[in-house]
Amino acid sequence: MEIIVQETYEEMSRAAAKVVARMLNSKPNAVLGLATGSTPQGVYRELVRLHKNEGLDFSQVTSFNLDEYVGLTKDHPQSYHYFMHENLFKHVNIPPQNVYIPSGTTDNYVAFCAWYERRIEECGGIDLQLLGIGSDGHIAFNEPSSSLGSRTRIKTLARQTIADNARFFEKTEDVPIYAITMGVGTILEARSILLLANGAHKADAVVAAIEGPVTSMITASALQLHPDVICFLDRPAADKLKMLDYYQWVQAKHPGAPQGT
Ligand code: PGA
Q1: Which residues sit with their C-beta closer than 6 Å to ligand 1?
Q2: What are the φ/ψ torsions at residue 213 (nearest 5 degrees)?
Q3: Are 146 and 184 contacting, i.e. CB atoms less than 8 angstroms apart?
Q4: What is the mean pLDDT of residues 235-256?
Q5: Contact between 177 and 157 (Cβ < 8 Å)
Q6: How far apart are CA 81 and CA 83, in angstroms?
Q7: For 127-147, what is each residue's pLDDT tens digit?
Q8: Would the pTM count as exceeding 0.85?
Q9: Residue nearest ligand 1's atom 2 by CA
């Protein structure tokens, strides 16, 4: 796991966007796994800027989003369909038919989940997966106790997640209780993964995910099993890491390391 600490959220977002841009420049038909929430908004802003100012091309990109609230229609302002459209898709040239987001309104979730998994496979698998982390350590909506081998399915949101996400809704009772989400097993099959975290409110989850044991109580800790993960953190999110000095030493020495490391 590579751990990159940046002073600010903006720097963190630009650094992560650079990795996405590098992927698209080396593989124009890359399959991206995309995340929603406050965390990746800066990355999307930077990708839009790179598209508009530097011609970053999305014309052959395919994307799969991690999750969606059950019961919210695509045009609901708090749906992840709406979020992705507003924050990224309407600003870049990704073909609408290449965009996949779990449906929050299908009448057959079991069949939909199986189809979603199949579509990822048929498209060649995910090249680069963006992830945020919940304050309870979740990735996507894989709440504590989710199987580390889980696949796309319905999850019941933890009270903590409902409380965290209530800020986007008028009142807590409006936050959906169920979500459709890629599983931890689905996420671990991505060829490379970027985990992003910013803010002091994420510091405990970050420590547990990076330095704690691998456990289904903190599903982000399963990323320790993946061979190609970069964690982009801002300083407040990194503040409680016991090995912070070491990660920063590695980061500083990286340019001089033998090629291929
Ligand atoms: P946030 O959510 O980016 O809105 O903090 C992250 C998550 O729950 O995965």
Answers
A1: 37-39, 132-134
A2: -70, 160
A3: yes
A4: 96
A5: yes
A6: 6
A7: 999 999 999 999 999 999 999
A8: yes
A9: 37
